[in-house]
Design brief:
The chain is mainly beta. It folds into 3 domains: 168 residues; 54 residues, no CATH class; 140 residues, Jelly Rolls (Sandwich). Strands 19, 20, 22, 26 and 28 form a 5-stranded antiparallel beta sheet that branches. Strands 21, 23, 24, 25 and 27 form a 5-stranded antiparallel beta sheet that branches.
């Protein structure tokens, strides 16, 4: 057996064993214990984790490559450093005649002080699973570090093709680093041990443990969270993040929402008319009534309101020489409370003399202020004519609200 371990054998530990196993890898999980795992690194520097890589040798045999690791025992047993200085082969038993099974490849420490047996050594071991219609991997024994799950199909053997290695391996390896080191994430994402611990994710996102979850590093310093961390919740209300589409979002305490919502806009290209000399929100011949837009007031309490329409005055049949005007205004409400009533002072108007002329476009821009931050307001268009014998037509009508930030 090539696997070299320290402080296990009662006699025979060499200076070489001790030198090989000075790993210094202790990623803490609590004040006493560390995480079992493999030291990161590769020969080319291209990969996070190359230690104990497993690959096919033959139909039922695989090679486990060299590597260094630590294996944590129970809380009073300490941590066992191990090193495999040269690759080693492992062989799998033939498959069951009826069902497939899942085997588990582990680094395992035998310590007779705790096992009650006679062995004191570190080994690479295949824990054979139970054949079943829905097979499950066996439970890892004490003082072991799972490396791979290997699915062994029914009937698999050296004589009939063996294990389909390209689809049968499930990599379970996880890395560890020294205390204070930035952990390269490979495999499952495990909780941190203390606030201020850092890890580097496979998508190159630096994260910090805040005591309850991993958060993107910029979150901890008030920066803008990159879009690559889109699956993470915010860590405080008012935090910002970028999005793949570009616009910033803001964490409102429960969800990411647009940081700068708006402008809010509605329009109608459907013409309609009224003969009412008092303001109404319904036009004859227009399919959409009333025309309303809602918006959320910003923290600045201010917004810019614009509205307008193309208007035309149409005399009823038999009516001549009548001057008239078409008026458009808006009513502003918050729930059932009217914040601003329709008033000619705020309206736009298109007028005609007794001799009709072409349609005209009218619009206005006004500032809204003293709004309640976070409250939702509704703005509804209203219309009137100044003569019941003159139809006031409104077309291309629009309302736009642009919050001020």
């Amino acid at each position: 057996m090539n696997l070299r371990s320290s402080w296990v054998a009662e006699t025979g530990q060499t200076r070489e064993d001790t030198r090989l196993n000075q790993v210094g890898a202790t990623t803490m999980v609590n004040p006493v214990q560390v995480r079992s795992g493999i030291l990161p690194g590769s020969y080319s520097g291209q990969f996070r984790l190359s230690g104990f890589w497993m690959d096919k040798v033959s139909a039922m045999t695989a090679t486990v490559s060299e590597g260094r690791a630590v294996i944590q025992g129970d809380i009073s047993q300490g941590v066992y450093p191990v090193t495999l200085p040269a690759a080693e082969q492992v062989t799998f038993a033939a498959g069951s005649a009826t069902y497939g099974r899942i085997d588990l490849v582990v680094l395992r420490i035998y310590d007779k002080l705790y096992d009650g047996g006679t062995r004191n050594e570190g080994v690479i071991e295949v824990i054979q699973g139970v054949p079943d219609a829905s097979p499950k991997a066996p439970v890892a024994p004490p003082r072991s570090l799972p490396l791979y799950e290997v699915t062994v199909p029914a009937g698999a053997s050296a004589g009939n093709g063996g294990i389909p290695w390209n689809t049968s391996l499930k990599d379970l390896r996880t890395p560890v680093v020294a205390v204070g080191g930035i952990l390269p994430v490979e495999g499952p994402v495990l909780p941190g041990a203390h606030p201020g611990q850092y890890q580097d994710t496979p998508n190159n996102q630096l994260q910090r443990w805040d005591g309850g979850k991993w958060v993107a590093y910029p979150e901890a310093i008030g920066g803008i969270v990159p879009s690559s961390a889109a699956s993470l919740p915010g860590s405080y209300t008012g935090q910002y993040r970028g999005t793949a589409a570009g616009p910033l979002q803001r964490w409102n305490g429960t969800a990411w929402v647009p940081a700068y919502p708006g402008p809010y806009f509605i329009d109608s290209l459907d013409a309609g008319y009224t003969l009412s000399t008092t303001y109404v929100d319904t036009l004859v011949d227009r399919a959409t009534n009333p025309l309303t837009v809602t918006f959320v007031a910003p923290e600045t309490r201010q917004a810019i309101l614009s509205f307008g329409s193309r208007v035309e005055l149409d005399l009823n049949s038999g009516t001549t020489g009548v001057a008239s005007s078409a008026w458009m205004c808006v009513r502003i409400t918050q729930g059932t409370t009217v914040i601003r009533e329709v008033d000619d002072e705020f309206a736009v108007v298109g007028s005609k003399s007794a001799d009709p002329t072409d349609a005209v476009s009218v619009s206005t821009t006004q500032r809204l202020y003293n709004l309640t931050p976070g409250a939702t307001y509704a703005i509804t268009a209203y219309y009137r004519t100044t003569n019941t014998n003159v139809r006031a037509w409104f077309d291309n009508t629009f309302i736009q609200v642009t919050p001020q930030y």
